Amino acid sequence: MGAFFNTLPGAVAQGMIWGIMAIGVYISYKILDIADLTVDGSICTGACVCAVMVVAGVPVWLAMLAAVLAGAAAGVLTGLLHTALGIPSILAGILTQLILYSVNLAILGGKSLVSLAGNREDLLLSMSNNPAAILVAAISVAVLVVALWLFFYTEVGLTLKSTGDNPDMSRAQGVNVKRNKVLGLAIANGIVALAGALLAQYKGSANINDGRGAIVIGLAAIFIGLSVSLKIKPNFVVSLIGVVGGGIVYYIIYSVVILIGLKTDYLKMLSAIIVVLFLAVPYLKGEFFTKRKPVSLPTNPGGDDHA
Question: Residue-wise pLDDT tens for the chain (307 aa)?
Fold first, then answer.
């Protein structure tokens, strides 16, 4: 138990950062109804841009802004591949992800890793000070949730929601569905890249493989968070907070599994299993444990109708 409580602050800090990434996945997956695989590349892009700029002496806030813009550009590319060229959204995300691998290597100068060890005094958060990291992550979450809440209740934000809910009806009402998809993917991947920038600072490095499997972690956080938050108060803000909570729960589970001795080789498999469980349990519960109403047959079929 002592070891668990020692690792808990780090799990909470990482969970909140990955929860921010999961908010980006939530926008594409739940609001736009697009399974966007760009995130495995854009989170790494955010980390690489932030790390390289901080090492070059750029103020950290400006490096984070550049990271967000780079992630948004990745989202725009995916959106244009999908809407302008007619490529299915899943394949468009995969193609952008492949492109970003080369782009990220170029950003890192051909190296697989850039260290921020000598720039810790300039960073907003670090794993060497988890309480401060939790505070910074919490402030980032609060600002992001409020900004998204305000945006999605503007006219543009409402049309984005309607695009995901019913694109045909939106199109009939004069909404530019293609433009909305590009905009939504840009916002989603900009948020994902923000998480990457925070993660690079927290870890003290940016690695070319940082984003591998990010989509699975994001989906796990979404399904864990929504399974709880939707039972409390099903609205937009609560859902976003629930997604961040899902990220925290995921990393606490992650830490417990490491403590009990599971090899790190199996952690990606664990992520997939968590997603499978949260997807399958509600379905299996409805299939096997929900009482089905018996079908009542008419007592005198056709009797009075033919009188």
Answer: 667 677 888 889 999 999 999 999 999 999 999 989 999 999 999 999 999 999 998 999 999 999 999 999 999 999 999 999 999 999 999 999 999 999 999 999 988 899 887 666 678 998 989 999 999 999 999 999 999 999 999 999 999 999 988 988 888 888 899 999 999 999 999 999 999 999 999 999 999 988 888 888 898 888 888 877 666 666 888 889 999 999 998 888 888 877 877 776 777 787 778 778 777 776 777 677 665 555 455 555 455 444 4
Name the DSSP letter for residue 115.
E
The C-alpha angle 272, 278, 282, rounded to 5 degrees, equals 145
Element (H, E) at 113: strand 113-115
Single pTM value for the model? 0.88
Report which of 243, 213, 232, 233 is spatially closest to residue 31, judged by C-alpha positions: 243
Query: For the chain, first and last CA: distance in Å?
Result: 78
Contact 250, 220 (CB under 8 A): yes
CA separation for the pair 247, 253 (Å, rounded):
10
Q: Give 206's DSSP letter.
A: E
* Rounded CA separation 222/159 (Å): 23
CB of 256 closer than 8 Å to CB of 11: no
Classify domain 2-286 at the CATH topology level.
ABC transporter involved in vitamin B12 uptake, BtuC (1.10.3470)
Residues in the chain: 307
In sequence order, the β-bridge partners of residue 95 are: none
Closest CA to 23 of 198, 160, 201, 225: 225
Q: Could you tell me the residue ranges of all domains in the chain?
A: 2-286
